Amino acid sequence: MVDKRMKQVRKELLGMVKKDKRAEAEEILNRIIGELEPEDTVSDPSLFIGLMPENVQKKILKEVTKNLKKIGLYSEENVQRDMDSKLWDLEELIDYRKFVTKPKKEQSAGR
Length: 111
Prior knowledge:
Distance between the termini: 35 Å
Radius of gyration: 18 Å
Order of helices and strands: HHHHH
Strand content: under 5%
Helix content: 40-55%
Structural class: mainly alpha
Number of strands: 0
Number of domains: 2
Number of helices: 5
């Protein structure tokens, strides 16, 4: 998913950097990647779940599975259908807002 692609891009970029500058380049890449998204949330609930970081996908899968079992609709097909959805499409099944980071404007305005 996204994490695998990010690792591939990182490897390719580091391969282009001279050996004596690789450690510095890796530090810069780590900082950039870390600033893109927190590991356990996303900023856009309109994203397809499959495009989210693996860590977020795992948490959503756990919640979807638990709630489908709770309401008696659990099946591999239902889980797969829900995991192929956009996050906000699951609002009747899970509280998707806990997987979404508020934009920085909203965070500072709410203080």
